[in-house]
Amino acid sequence: MPKTEQATVDEWLTVLSIACDPQSPFAGQVDLTDIFKLPLAVQRQIYDRLAPNQIELIKKFYGPKEEDE
Fold first, then answer.
1. Helix/strand/coil (H, E, C) string of 20-61?
2. Where are the domains of the chain?
3. CA-closest candidate to residue 16, choices 26, 5, 7, 2
4. Do residues 46 and 16 touch, judged by C-beta distance below 8 A?
């Protein structure tokens, strides 16, 4: 049975919360590449439900490093 779009969004929000929680041993280590396989509309729903501090943490853990810029 395929997951509903809402279930997919909720699942990814949970994954992103774990992946970017500074207290989590998995912070910065979760493979997030599968999120780019989702339809763009679903990606937008996920992004729109992130809190501003979560977006900053995603950039911190998964964005380009200073030496890469």
1. CCCCCCCCCCCCCHHHHHCCHHHHHHHHHHCCHHHHHHHHHH
2. 5-63
3. 26
4. yes
d(CA 46, CA 34): 13
Q: Which two tokens stand for residue 40?
A: 């763009």
What's the pLDDT at 64? 87
Amino acid type, 38? L
For residue 20, the model assigns a pLDDT of 93
Query: Residue-wise pLDDT tens for the chain (69 aa)?
Result: 467 999 999 999 999 999 999 998 888 999 999 999 999 999 999 999 999 999 999 999 999 877 755
Residue with tokens 């501090």: 53
**Residue 4 CA, distance from chain mean position:** 18
